[in-house]
Amino acid sequence: MDCKEAKEQIVPYILGSLESSEMLGIDRxxxxxxxCILRLRQEGAIVADLAYAVPQxxxxxxxxxRLFARIRLDSLDEKPSSKIQAWSSLLADLGLSLAARSGFxxxxxxxxxxxxxxxxxxxxxxxIAGEKEALAAQIATVTDSEAEMMERWKxxxxxxxxxxxxxxxxxxxxxxxxxxxxxxxIVVEAAGMKGTLTAVDMxxxxxxxxxxxxxxKDGGIYNAGAVFTVDSTGYGxxxxxxxxxxxxxxxxxxxxxxxxxxxxxxxxxxxxGDL
Amino acid sequence: MSKDLSSDKRNxxxxxxxxxxxxxxxxxGQAHAGGIRDYSSLNDQELLILIAQHSRDALSVLYDRYxxxxxxxxxxxxQDAGAAEEVTQDTFFNIWRRASSYRPERGKVTxxxxxxxxxxxxxxxxxxxxxxxxxxxxxxSLLNQPADEHGDPTLYAAREMQRSKIMEALTxxxxxxxxxxxxxxxxxxxxxxxxxxxxxxxxxxxxxMRLALKKLRDVMGPQAHEWADHGL
Lengths: 275, 232
Known about the structure:
The structure holds two protein chains of two kinds.
Chain A: H1 3-14, H2 20-30, H3 34-50, H4 61-101, H5 104-164, E1 169-175, E2 183-188, E3 194-200, E4 209-217, E5 220-228, E6 236-241, E7 251-258, E8 269-274
Antiparallel strand pairs in A: 1-2, 1-8, 2-3, 3-6, 4-5, 4-7, 7-8
Chain B: E1 19-21, E2 36-38, H1 44-52, H2 56-78, H3 81-98, H4 109-131, H5 153-172, H6 175-186, H7 191-198, H8 202-220, H9 223-230
Antiparallel strand pairs in B: 1-2
Helix pairs in contact in B: 1-2, 2-3, 2-4, 3-4, 5-8, 6-8, 7-8
């Protein structure tokens, strides 16, 4: 790739709109071209700012804990293998040097003992590494659960405060089928344009599916612009921002849809409630 | 120079303040040797030097600065909180492993960091698109939703100011220029896919992208670089 081609491709490159093979070509060229490095630097700063154009939302605390648990596991992965390599190399070196100096039978026996010992030792080290991994995974799971509980408690606390504010209304949704114990409630702020939906005991979703919220008015069904998933206990929450006050709608329903949401409901409602 | 980052053993959660010895910083020895310094006062590049030396505290501070932006971008583009969490974790795990490959001459830490996150999001978007056609952003108003007001109010206010400036810059673009930026950056489409979708020659799409970025740079000016420098 020459400089002219690279310059044409740099903007699509930093916007992420090249195919992987094209990106590699740019990478190779830029590594050796001061002009293109300068161009990359200028355009890259602007594109980095585009990340802030989306509404900023809070990262669930479990993500950071899982990241650091993964880093700890990664460190554990590296250490045992280097120890095993060191011991294997030591045993091999020792066996070979003895064989050179002693009788063949005696040294062969020693080599066999050392090899077997090395195998046992390696296997024990692997076992210990496995136990460490399992332990670290358990710790990560416990800290995740703890973080989820804290997060849920904080969400509930915030919700109670919102619900206590003057003018706030609370509407409930119940399961469409009696076989399902799920329920939900929505806390609607005074102006009626914004609410927080909390669902409990919801059925677990199949992979690639989400719950989607809909509003019903005069027989028509409107997308409320909110999708959510639930945790292992069936708990989920979603913020809903409306273009018209909630009081103008007759009912709210929740259906199961594909990830990303659907333009129209494609399944029967799981929950429904009059507004 | 001391390589003993024993202080890293503390404060892995990153919730409270972390301290390091000045001597632990590459090129940062200056006249403070033996003293301690707040990690959060370090700039992004200094943090990355420490991350390359396996400082978890430094990663924790960098994470606190930018994880929200990476997560928000992923959540908005993928419309899936679980996938956004994975993308955020993968991005910072990659930063942990690849910190030593960062080249300052190629751009700021934020540009490098967001390119890692953005590429990971695009991979996920393209993987999903292979399975099923998904909605892609063509309308700037889709990005104009209220932000989460939880967390540090100062940081929230700064982010909102920054967001408003970027939205203003995006709005100032001609519609055909804005369209290609939104489809590429937020929709994860390749330039060939954009050309196909808009029924325009590939060269026209590239020209629109180039003009769009030039206009964004003119509108946002040096302020954008200030933000990137200070980790806002």
